[in-house]
Amino acid sequence: MSVTSSQLLSKVKQDIAEVTAEQVQKQLGAGAEIHLVDVRERDEVMDGYISGAALIPRGFLELNIEEDVTMDRSAEIVLYCAGGNRSALAARDLAFMGYENVKSMIGGFKGWKDAGYQFEQGGLLSEDDMQRYARHIILPEVGEGGQQKLLKGRVLLVGAGGLGCPTALYLAAAGVGQIGLVDADVVDKSNLQRQVLFGESDVGRPKVEAARDRLLDLNPGIDVRTHYELLTSHNIYDVMAEYDIIVNGCDNFPTRYLVNDAAVLTGKPVVDGSIFRFEGQATVYVPGEGPCYRCLYPEPPPPGEVPSCAEGGVLGVLPGTVGLMQATEVVKLILGEGKPLIGRVLLYDAMDMKFRELKLRRDSECPVCGDNPTVTELIDYQQFCGLPSQSEAAG
Ligand SMILES: [Zn+2]
Predict the structure, then answer these.
(1) Residue ranges of the alpha helices (H) in 219-280?
(2) Which CATH number fits domain 5-114: 3.40.50.2300, 3.40.50.720, 3.40.50.300, 3.40.250.10?
(3) Ligand 1 centre and the CA of 299: distance in Å?
(4) Exposed site from 141, 144, 197, 345, fewest CB < 10 Å?
C-alpha cells in the first residue's frame, strides 16, 4: 500500500500538535520558555529567522537536537520551516525520540513574516565566509558562532607601528569586522625593517592609509577605519566610541596614560604590549577584573628621569612576537574563550628565547581605578623631550 505526499502530510498533521504564529508570538512576548527550532536549509535562513531560534536543518535535526537544544523530553519545542510541512514531519520524528511537547508552527516562517512579526537577519555566514574562515569554523571553540562574534568585533589599534602592524594583519585575516587605526605618522624607510604592513612604495604615505589598503586587500569583507591624528584628551572619547577593545601599540607616556585613563573611565579592555631592544611584554587590562596601567605606574616619571628619549634600537622580528601575543588576546576576548592575560604580564626575552610570567594586582589606592580615584578627567601629559611619536615608540 502506498500513500501520496499530501496523504502523508494530512495524516501526520492529525497526529502532531500545531500552533499558529500568533500563538507563538504571544507566548514569546509573555516570556514563556519555548525552544524555537528553525529546520530550514542554510540558504533559506539567510533571508531571516525568528530571534532566538536554533538553526538546525531538517536533515540534522534528530542528530543535533540534544546537543544544540535540549535533552529534556518534556521541554516545549516549537519547530518551523518555510511553510509548515517540513516542520510537521520533523515534529513527528522528535515525538518518536520521546519529546512529548513538540509543536509545528502553521504557515512557517512565511506566515510569521506575513503577520508582520519581528525577525532577524544575518544569522549565518555567507558561502564565501564559510570558505574563508573554514579553519576557524571547524574548531569547536570557534565555530560559526565564534566567527560571527569576530565579524562583529570592533577593535581600535593605537599606533600602526611595529606592534600595530602584525596585530592588524592577523586580526584582519581572522575576520575581525571593524578595525580602527590611529596614527599620525607617514611611512619611513627605516620602518620597513619590522612594520610588515608597508612596502617600499608606501614610503611617504600616511601609515593609516597604506595600512588600510593592505588590510582590505587581505580581507575585503571587513571595515577598516583610519584616524590620521594624534590621540589627545579632546578626541580620544570620540575615536574610542566606535570600538569595544583597545590595543595599545604605542610606548610614549602621554598616550599610554591617556589610553589607560580613557579605557578605565569608559570600561573598555586594553590589550597592552611594549618592546625594547630584544625584550617585550604583553598584558590585558580589563576594568573591574584586574589592575590598570596606573595600578603599576601611578604617575609618569618626571621629565628629568626619563632615561633616554632617543629612539632605541629594536630587533626587527621582536614586535612580530609581541604583536601576535596581543592579537591572540584580542581574539580570545572577542570569543570569550581561554584565559586572558588579566592580572599577569608575559615577559619575553628574544635573546634567551625565554618567557616569564609575573602576577599583577589591582591597587585599591590607584589614582584612576582605585576605591577613591583622584583622576576623574583625562590629562594631556607633555611630550617631554623628543619622545618619538605613537607608532615609532613601539618600534
Ligand atoms: Zn588602576
Answers:
(1) 236-240, 253-266
(2) 3.40.250.10
(3) 11
(4) 141
Q: How far does residue 157's CA lie from ligand 1's centre (Å)?
A: 21
DSSP tag of 301: P
Please tell me the distance between residue 367's alpha carbon and the centre of ligand 1 in angstroms: 7
Ligand 1 centre to CA of 267 (Å) is: 12
- For the chain, residues classed under CATH 3.40.50.720 are 131-393
Domain limits, CATH 3.40.250.10, in the chain: 5-114
- How many Cβ atoms sit within 10 Å of the Cβ of residue 241? 11
pTM above 0.85, yes or no: no
Question: Is 131-393 assigned to CATH 1.10.8.60?
Answer: no
Sheet holding 223-227, edge to edge: 223-227, 178-182, 154-158, 245-248, 270-276, 279-285, 344-349, 354-359
Q: Please list the pLDDT of the chain residue by residue as tens digits (395 residues).
A: 799 999 999 999 999 999 999 999 999 999 999 999 999 998 888 888 999 899 999 999 999 999 999 999 999 999 999 999 999 999 999 999 999 999 999 999 999 999 999 998 876 788 899 999 999 999 999 999 999 999 999 999 999 999 999 999 999 999 999 999 999 999 999 999 999 999 999 999 999 999 999 999 999 999 999 999 999 999 999 999 999 999 999 878 899 999 999 999 999 999 999 999 999 999 999 999 999 999 999 998 876 666 544 567 899 999 999 999 999 999 999 999 999 999 999 999 999 999 999 999 999 999 999 999 999 999 998 765 444 344 444 44
Of the candidates 177, 196, 72, the one whose C-alpha atom is nearest the C-alpha of residue 133 is 177
Identify the sign of the CA torsion 206, 211, 213, 214.
Answer: positive
Q: Tell me the C-alpha distance between 267 and 297, whole Å.
A: 19
Q: Find the 238 Cα to ligand 1 centroid distance in Å.
A: 22
Angle, helices 207-218/164-174, rounded to nearest 10 degrees:
30
How many angstroms separate the CA atoms of 96 and 352, rounded?
A: 63
| Calpha distance 240→230 (Å, rounded) | 13
Spatial separation of the C-alpha atoms in residues 91 and 243, rounded to whole Å: 43
* Cα–Cα dist 169/182, whole Å: 15
308/36 Cα distance (integer angstroms): 63
